[in-house]
């Protein structure tokens, strides 16, 4: 079940972000983002567990399959983050979240979506390409993993622009 993010979800999302990303959005930044009028975000929940439950600090919330965070301004959206609970990846959750985001975007006359993704993030690149995103630029050495530096690929979805 997918629904909009509420303030009560921010703890659970922050914990999952920290598990998935070296530079994660923390609870305070998520709360600030969530209250911004341009914010657009969704969670996918385990059926019959649609309410946040109290959990120990650092534990992943069992009710949360995944989340998508974006902003939307005048028909242009930016996907800031998408994450799926590790033991539920590759089961269609990411696809469902993006489908829901695009359905919502259609109702908002969304014409363009941009995002950044690490060049070695094969699952995310596959997901975005499936939805018609194409590369339009690179940020060299944008991400750091230990001593490694990794380019960010900038991708866009923009059906009305001439390819690419
Ligand atoms: C990227 C992520 C959100 C994908 O979500 P998911 O629920 O695992 O993906 P889905 O099961 O919906 O798969 C959708 C498509 O993504 C691609 N994909 C997903 N996992 C993949 C993998 N391990 N290897 C290759 N392609 C993969 C495939 O194209 C897949 O379509 P298919 O199953 O028909 O082949 C998830 O792997 C994740 O949370 N990763 C860690 C956080 C992250 O990197 N987020 C993206 C930041 S830019």
Description:
Helix content is about 25%, strand content about 35%. It is α+β, with helices and mostly antiparallel strands and about 160 residues long. The longest helix is centred in the middle third of the chain and has 15 residues, at about 95-105. Helix 3 links the parallel strand 4 (about 75-85) and strand 5 (about 110-120). It is globular and about 50 Å long. It has helices at about 10-20, 25-35, 95-105, 120-130, and strands spanning about 1-5, 40-45, 65-75, 75-85, 110-120, 135-145, 150-155. It folds into two domains: about 1-85, Aminopeptidase (3-Layer(aba) Sandwich); about 110-164, Gcn5-related N-acetyltransferase (GNAT) (Aminopeptidase). It binds coenzyme A. The site of coenzyme A has 19 residues, from strand 4, helix 3 and helix 4. Coenzyme A binds next to strand 4, helix 3 and helix 4.
List the helices and strands and how they pair.
Blueprint: E1 2-4, H1 10-20, H2 27-34, E2 39-45, E3 64-73, E4 76-84, H3 93-107, E5 112-118, H4 122-130, E6 134-145, E7 148-157
Parallel strand pairs: 4-5
Antiparallel strand pairs: 1-2, 2-3, 3-4, 5-7, 6-7
The structure holds coenzyme A (COA).
Pick out its properties.
164 residues; alpha+beta; Aminopeptidase; 2 domains; 4 helices; globular; binds coenzyme A
Brief summary of the model shown:
The protein is α+β, with helices and mostly antiparallel strands and 164 residues long. It has 2 domains: 1-87, Aminopeptidase (3-Layer(aba) Sandwich), CATH 3.40.630; 111-164, Gcn5-related N-acetyltransferase (GNAT) (Aminopeptidase).
Corresponding CATH superfamily of the largest domain = Gcn5-related N-acetyltransferase (GNAT)
* Category from helices, strands and their pairing: alpha+beta
> Strand-and-helix sequence, N→C?
EHHEEEHEHEE
Q: What is the CA-based Rg, rounded? A: 16 Å
Q: Level of helix content? A: 25-40%
**CATH fold-level name of the largest domain:** Aminopeptidase
Beta-strand content bin? 35-45%
Count of DSSP H/I helices: 4
Sheet with the most strands, sense and barrel status: 7 strands, mixed
Ligand inventory reads: coenzyme A
Residue windows where pLDDT falls under 50 for at least 5 positions = none
CATH architecture of the largest domain: 3-Layer(aba) Sandwich
The separation of the N and C termini measures 34 Å
Please tally the β strands and state the result. Answer: 7
Overall mean pLDDT? 93
């Amino acid at each position: 079940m997918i629904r909009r993010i509420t303030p009560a979800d921010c703890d659970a999302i922050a914990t999952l972000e920290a598990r998935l990303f070296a530079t994660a959005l923390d609870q305070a930044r998520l709360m600030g983002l969530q209250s911004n009028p341009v914010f657009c975000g969704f969670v996918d929940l385990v059926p019959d567990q649609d309410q946040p439950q109290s959990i120990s600090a650092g534990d992943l919330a069992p009710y949360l399959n995944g989340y998508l965070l974006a902003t939307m301004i005048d028909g242009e959206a930016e996907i800031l983050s998408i994450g799926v609970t590790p033991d539920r990846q590759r089961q269609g959750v990411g696809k469902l979240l993006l489908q829901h985001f695009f359905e919502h975007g259609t109702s908002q006359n969304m014409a363009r979506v941009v995002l950044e993704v690490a060049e070695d993030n094969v699952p995310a690149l596959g997901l975005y390409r499936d939805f018609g995103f194409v590369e339009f630029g690179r940020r060299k050495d944008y991400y750091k993993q230990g001593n490694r530096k990794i380019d960010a690929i900038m991708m866009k979805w923009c059906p009305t622009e001439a390819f690419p």
